[in-house]
Design goal:
Distance between the termini: 20 Å
Strand content: under 5%
Number of domains: 1
CATH superfamily: MFS general substrate transporter like domains
Length: 413
């Protein structure tokens, strides 16, 4: 059986790299997102003050990055289907490293926003290719388990990102925190250049033709399995981004945590996420994807209700009233993200790049909207975080119990 036929049939192809190397590559490519967003969060209030910018403009350094991240994947996806994953990764990681250096040297907020926008666009190549590589090498069921292993590594990186950012910002200033992103990008680029073998079984020479591209996108967005898992992925990331975008202003600005205490709180959040990805692998063996997602949604809804209930009862100035529900949410998030990201590309073995790109675009478009809303809504209280988290937890539960339950079994198109 040829590798192209095996991929089209949903059968895993022969591994071009050792499994341990695949997991390491996935960890770095997926981990570039929390590194880029989380590591500089402790420095966000300080750089806002030093550059003399309003809060809404400083939020744009995050929301513009994510919008560029989402839109760029619509370009990177077809490019990777046409030329392969490896060249796209090399181009993207090189641009990411250069943009990170520019951001660390930015003299004003305008140039910092420009650098972060380029950084986000380049980051799209890494994360999009990671999802596509999983589909290149694994069947949908195996892909969920492989993705959970990569996201475990992502969680470990996220555990370290905020504390490291806190230390760098305290000792060396916010520019050092941004310069660390360049070092991460350079290390990832070196690994891809030296060790990564192409995973795409067959290039698609027509992937960039407008008619082919529109036809492919139309097929993807009409697929109910893709829509179900994309809805789950977007809602789950929307809740996480709501917390991240407001966390430094709420935990440091409202609750009075130091940057190091803030880093410790987000370390706990990321550590529970790592545990959630490990739980995910056990649940997948026993329950399968759809039932695992439904069970995790019970935790998600409970987290949203507890956070909203405590706020309604007047318990608003307590760290634990926010942190404990968030830990419960992150446990379930460790199940929802691997299942939804692998499930969204599962039906498309011949267009994994395009499917991954659309899934990422929807997630980041939502994150951009949340960032704009957060910049307008932050009012010096905990309520914007509570309102956003509660809303998205409800959306996650509805997506898991309706869309994924009905359409979660992949059918290849």
């Amino acid at each position: 059986m040829s590798s192209a036929f095996r991929a089209q049939a949903g059968v895993p192809r022969a591994m071009p790299m050792p499994d341990s190397l695949v997991v390491l590559v996935l960890t770095l490519l997926l981990g570039i997102q929390p590194v880029t967003t989380d590591l500089y969060l402790p420095a966000l209030p300080a750089l806002t003050v030093e550059l003399g910018a309003p809060v809404a403009q400083s939020q744009l350094t995050l929301s513009a990055l994510l919008l560029a991240f989402g839109i760029s994947q619509l370009v990177w996806g077809p490019l990777s289907d046409r030329f392969g994953r490896r060249p796209v990764l090399l181009w993207g990681l090189a641009a990411y490293t250069l943009a990170s250096v520019l951001g660390a040297l930015a003299p004003d907020m305008v140039l910092l926003i420009v650098a972060r926008t380029v950084q986000g666009a380049a980051m799209g190549a890494a994360v999009m290719c990671a999802r596509a590589v999983v589909r290149d090498l694994y069947t949908p069921e195996q892909g969920a388990r492989a993705m959970s292993r990569g996201l475990t590594g992502l969680g470990v990186i996220a555990c370290l990102a905020v504390p490291l950012g806190s230390v760098l910002a305290d000792l060396l200033g916010w520019r050092a925190a941004l310069l660390a992103l360049a070092l991460f990008g350079a290390a990832s680029l070196a690994l891809i250049a030296l060790r990564f073998a192409e995973t795409l079984p067959q290039l698609n020479p027509r992937a960039l033709e407008p008619a082919t591209l529109l036809r492919t996108w139309g097929t993807i967005v009409r697929n109910p399995t893709f829509l179900a898992y994309s809805a789950l992925a977007s809602a789950s990331y929307g809740a996480l981004f709501t917390f991240l975008a407001s966390s430094s202003f709420v935990l440091i600005g409202v609750l009075g945590l130091s940057r190091l205490q803030y880093g410790a709180a987000l370390f706990c959040v990321s550590a529970v996420y790592v545990a959630g990805t490990m739980v995910c692998r056990r649940l997948l063996v026993r329950l399968g994807v759809q039932r695992s997602v439904a069970l995790a949604a019970c935790c998600t809804l409970a987290a949203g209700l507890i956070m909203a209930g405590l706020a309604a009862a007047g318990v608003r100035e307590s760290l634990w009233a926010l942190l404990l529900p968030m830990l419960l949410f992150m446990l379930a998030h460790g199940v929802h993200q691997p299942c939804s990201q692998s499930g969204a590309v599962g039906p498309f073995p011949r267009a994994a790049g395009a499917a991954s790109a659309l899934n990422g675009f929807f997630m980041m478009l939502l994150a951009f909207a949340i960032g704009l809303w957060m910049g307008w809504r932050l009012d010096g209280t905990v309520m914007p975080m509570v309102e956003g988290m509660s809303f998205w937890c409800l959306c996650i539960a509805l997506a898991a119990w309706t869309l994924v339950r009905r359409h979660g079994a992949p059918r290849a198109d």
